[in-house]
Design goal:
This protein is of the alpha+beta class. It has three domains: 3-277, Bira Bifunctional Protein, Domain 2 (BirA Bifunctional Protein, domain 2, 2-Layer Sandwich); 294-392, Anticodon-binding domain (Rossmann fold, 3-Layer(aba) Sandwich), CATH 3.40.50.800; 409-477, C-terminal domain of ProRS (Translation Initiation Factor IF3, 2-Layer Sandwich). It has 15 helices and 25 strands. It starts with 17 loop residues before the first helix and ends with a strand. The chain binds one RNA strand through helix 1, strand 11, strand 14, helix 11 and helix 12.
RNA sequence: CGGGACGUGGCGCAGUCUGGUAGCGCACAGCGUUCGGGACGCUGGGGCCGUGGGUUCGAAUCCCACCGUCCCGACCA
């Protein structure tokens, strides 16, 4: 058996057509399916389970950092959206409008929320009177709608699920700190749980959130060497508090506008998991967010339902009791080989085979999804080994992602190099920028690459495009 | 929203050029033999050919419009 014959045959190879590969995996692994409305999808149970793990974990982190969950309405009056001009201009092309209630035309159109700054600003103005009311630290888990023209499952759909935090603070500095704090919560979460290596920093003026003073974000490199924004944290300054009149009496009995932040991550992260870790055999989930961590495949020989299955069930119970997310594939219409391929496609990190030979020797066979290494371990060591292997998979997946990112980050000084890289190698280009939006725009026109982040480090040199003095270290890439 | 390609059982496709009432592989169901890397045999079910108009005795096939998907651009989590 050669390596190729082990691959799941029915998925278009990544190298042949990345987009096709991506979409096929999502449908064949039953993460999601197209809904009959343009740009909309159904997140199927297997895909939703991934989101639930992301959500549960992040929810805990958000609460640990002092935030409380709440829920704001789906609809936002048009006049609210209009208050912050930049905000409105940023979102107006993709807002879905409700114009009728039953048969009656509404006096004022209602936007289906593309984000909730407006309605939340309005409510905060009612709730906040004094510095004693601050900070306000609220998060909501919600769906939002953005009427996108070009859509792809998980990466960009007309409706998606997310978490949006909205906070109000006494001082600019406190709000800045909150912005940074949540960015680092995202960074830790994405690296530790999703095993995806990131770069982080500030967005340029042209890429920042409509209505923010500053947008920070975390970006990852997908395996086709395009960048994907995975989380954003905005310092809103007083833009929204001024237009929604969110005032408080400060410690000197003077009226002041609050300083705000907002931050969010979306179901897009599920798409990132596919694009970062998947291979030609299908998905490959990091153990911490895998819906199923261990799949038990009983080797069905002879009267296996009587001879093998009871042992497999016992093994399942043992693992479950130790906190593994485990399933037993006892379907009789499939051969073990078929099941191996199927669960590989579904990205289950660890497969446990148990057959007559193993039962006789009190063993089980463990096979990891990430490198397909197979080992025989005794049933007494199974739990310990299982934990060990899952931890190791988690670690080595992050390392692989880190190495991939480093290998595909190219430091350049000259524009000709920049262009050459964007033509062939892709990935991140790390370089210097003078800060002029015109240079940024020209680069985009030439290479399709945009500034993904402005790094926090500073350096002296000259702008990669115009040669003028520059001190901003920036990462460019083509992006989703 | 511009340029291109494609829509035929669940999936992948042939048939369209040259109009004559739909076929293949996989999947699915039943039975039997199998089962340590996608088993095999036999039997069976399922499609008014994306939607709506038009041309014609007759349309999957020709014409028009619309919708959807994918790729390439402009816009975005």
């Amino acid at each position: 058996m050669n390596d190729k014959s082990r691959f799941v045959q029915k998925i278009t190879p990544k190298s042949t057509d990345f987009s096709k590969w991506y979409v096929e995996i999502i449908r064949k692994a039953e993460l999601a399916d197209y809904a009959p409305m343009k740009g909309m999808m159904v997140i199927r149970p297997y895909g939703y389970a991934v989101w639930e793990h992301i959500k549960n974990h992040l929810d805990k982190k958000i609460k640990e950092t002092g935030h409380k969950n709440a829920y704001f309405p789906l609809f936002i009056p048009e006049s609210f959206l209009q208050k912050e001009t930049e905000h409105l201009e940023g979102f107006s092309p993709e807002v879905a409008w409700v114009t009728h209630g039953g048969e009656d035309e509404l006096e004022e159109r209602l936007a289906v929320r593309p984000t909730s700054e407006a309605i939340i600003g309005h409510m905060y103005s009612k709730w906040i009177n004094s510095y004693r009311d601050l900070p306000v630290l609220i998060n909501q888990w919600a769906n939002i709608v953005r009427w996108e023209k070009v859509t792809r499952p998980f990466l960009r759909t007309a409706e998606f699920l997310w978490q949006e935090g909205h906070t109000a603070h006494e001082t600019s500095q406190e709000a800045e700190e909150e912005t940074q704090k949540m960015l680092s919560v995202y960074k830790e979460f994405i690296e530790n749980e999703l095993a995806i290596s990131l770069i982080s920093g500030l967005k340029s003026e042209r890429e920042k959130f409509a209505g923010a003073s500053a947008t920070y974000c975390v970006e990852a490199l997908m395996s086709d060497k395009k960048a994907l924004q995975m989380g954003t944290s905005h310092f809103l300054g007083q833009h929204f508090s001024k237009v929604f009149d969110v005032k408080f009496e400060d410690r000197n009995q003077e009226l002041q506008y609050v300083w705000q932040t907002s931050w969010g991550v979306t179901t897009r992260m599920v798409g990132a998991l596919v694009m970062v870790h998947g291979d030609d055999s299908g998905l490959c989930f990091p153990p911490r967010v895998a819906p199923v961590q261990v799949i038990i495949v009983p080797i069905s020989v002879g009267d296996w339902k009587k001879t093998v299955l009871p042992h497999a069930e016992k093994v399942k119970k043992k693992l479950e009791n130790k906190g593994f997310r485990v399933e037993l594939d006892d379907r009789e219409q499939f051969t073990p080989g078929w099941k191996f391929s199927e669960w590989e496609m579904k990205g289950v990190p660890l497969r446990l085979e148990i057959g007559p030979r193993d039962i006789e020797n009190n063993n089980v066979v463990l096979v990891r999804r990430d490198n397909r290494k197979k080992q025989v371990v005794s049933q007494d060591q199974m739990i310990e080994k299982g934990h060990e292997i899952l931890d190791d998979i988690q670690k080595s997946m992050l390392n692989a992602s880190l190495k991939f990112r480093e290998d595909n980050t190219h430091e350049v000084n000259h524009y000709s190099e920049f262009q050459a890289i964007m033509k062939s190698k892709m990935g991140f280009v790390k370089t210097l920028w003078c800060g002029n939006p015109d240079c940024e725009a020209h680069i985009k026109e030439d290479t399709k690459a945009t500034i993904r982040v402005i790094a926090s480090e500073k350096e002296k040199g000259s702008c990669v495009y115009c040669d003028k003095d520059a001190h901003l270290v920036v990462y460019f890439a083509r992006a989703y």
